[in-house]
Amino acid sequence: MKKIFIILVLVCCATIAYTQIKVTSAGNIGMGLNSSTTPLSRLSVNTAGAANITTSIEGTGITILDIVNKGFNPGSTSMDFGVGIRITNDKVESGFFDVGVLATTVKATPLNGTKRAAGVVGVGGYASHGYNFGTVGIVEGDKNGAGILGVTSYSGLTSTAGFISSKLAGYFQGNVIVNGTLTGNLVNTSDIRFKKDIVDLDKRSEVLGNLMRLTPVSYHFKQIYSEPQDDTTTERYGYFDEESQLFKKSHFGLIAQDLQKIYPDLVYDGGNGYLAINYTEFIPLLIQSVKEQQQMIHAQSERISELEKLIANMSGTPNMRSGAESNTSSNTLTSLNSANATIAALYQNAPNPFTEQTEIKFSLPESTVSAIIYLFDMNGAMIKQIPVSARQSSVGINGSELAAGMYLYSLIVDGKEVDTKRMILTR
Questions:
Q1: Residue 147 in contact with residue 172, Cβ under 8 Å?
Q2: Residues in contact with 384: Cβ distance below 8 Å, sequence separation at least 6, in sequence order
Q3: Are the CB atoms for 45 and 29 separated by under 8 Å?
Q4: If I label 281, which of 34, 144, 206, 393 is the partner at 20 to 30 A Cα–Cα?
C-alpha cells in the first residue's frame, strides 16, 4: 500500500507544473494548493479534498490520471493478470452500499453541441481468439445477484433492480435493443405465482377468426437514420449495420401497426418511437386457433358421417326392410330432405356399375330456377342433358342408350356446378 501511495505522489508531482507541497500535522499531503487551503484528504491535488476521501485529485486536462502498464512478470500459473489499476474494497457490511469503482460523467444541465458522456468505457482486443472482453462482470459467492446490472435511473438500484432473486450473469431494468442476432435459450417468466386475472382463451373471443385477419409478410430492413438532437454535428447515424446478416437477409413477420388493431397488447413502444412485437406470446394464440380448427373439423366430420348414413339409407330397397327399418328409412329421408331444403346435392348413382338401368338421386332447394344433369364420356364430350326440377328427387339412365364404359355426370343448378361423379356401364 505504501508503494502505491508513493507512486501516486510521484505521478502527480510530474504532471503539475508549479507544485506547492503542504503537509499537515495529521500527515495529510497537499499539492497545487494556494496558501489558504488545507489538504483534508490524505493526498490532495489541486483541491482540498475531504476527510472521508483518502485521495482527491482535481484537474482541467483531457486526461486527469494516466496509468500505463508496460508489462509484468507472470507467476507460476497461466491465469495471472496484468492490471493497470487494481482497486479492492473489502468493506462490505450489512446496511451499506459498497462500491468498488464509481465512475460518473454527468452534467447538471444539458449541453448543446457535439458531446458524449459515458460512465465507463471498456475496450479489449488483440489477445487470444475468444478472450477479448471490453467489460467483465462477475458475481461471486453463494448469494443472489448479477454480474452486470443495467438500470435507467438511480432509483432502480434501490427498488426492483436493487433486489435480484437468483444468480444471474446480467440483469436489465428497462428496454434493451439488440441490433443484430441474439443467440441462446430464450425463456419467459410464466410461473402462475406471477400471474393474476387468468382467463382461458376459449372464453374470450374467436382466436382463429382474429388470426385469419392478419397478413404475414416477407421484407427486408431499410436503413433508418437518426438526426442527433441538440448536436452541432451534421453526421447522420444509421440504425442498422448494412454489412450485417440482419440487414441483408429476408425476414418474415407481421406489420406492428396492423397487429395493433387486433391484438394491441402484443405491440410495444420500443422507446425510440418505433413499434415492436412480442412474437413469443403468439404461441398460446396459435395453440388456441388449432384447438378451434380441430373442433370445426370434428363437427364437420360428424356431419359428413350423418349425411353418408342418410345417403346409404336412401340407396336401399324399402320393401326388403322390416317395418322398423322402413320407419327408420322414412325418418331418415325426412331428415335428409330437411337438411337439404336449402342445399343442392348430387348423389352416387345406384346400382353402380350397372348393366340395364341406374338411378341418379339429387336434391334441389325450392328456390331453384333451373337445374340440369349433364352426361359426358371420358373424352369430355356431352352425351346427354336432362332438365330436372325441385319436385324431382331422381332420374333414370337406360343402359341400352349407351355403350359400355365409364361416364361422368354433373349437376348444374342456376348456372353453377354442384358436383360431378362417375358411373360405369357394363355388358
A1: no
A2: 374, 375, 401
A3: no
A4: 144
Contact (CB, 8 A) for 393 and 385: no
Contact at 8 Å (CB) between 188 and 280?
yes
pLDDT of 217 > 90? The answer is: yes
- pLDDT, position 79: 55
Nearest to 49 by CA among 31, 71, 61, 75: 31
Q: In whole angstroms, what is the distance from residue 62 CA to residue 22 CA?
A: 26
b/e for 242-266, b at 16 or more Cβ within 10 A? Answer: eeeeebeeeeeebebeebbeebeeb
HSE (CB half, 13 Å, CA atoms) of 418? Answer: 23
Which residues have a Cβ under 8 Å from the Cβ of 195 and sit 6 or more positions away? none
Q: Which three cell numbers stand for residue 222?
A: 431499410
pLDDT per residue over 65-81, tens digit each? Answer: 888 877 766 555 555 66
Residues facing 410 on adjacent strands: 374, 420
* Calpha distance 169→187 (Å, rounded): 15
C-alpha cell at 110: 444539458
Query: Which residues are CB-contacts of 100 (< 8 A; sequence separation ≥ 6)?
Result: 87, 88, 89
CA atoms within 13 A on the CB side of 22: 22
Three-class secondary structure of residue 173 per DSSP: strand
For residue 48, pLDDT over 80 is answered with yes
Radius of gyration of the chain (CA): 42
Q: What Å distances lie between residue 174 and 98, 160, 177, 345, CA to CA?
A: 24, 11, 10, 62
Cell of 398: 337406360
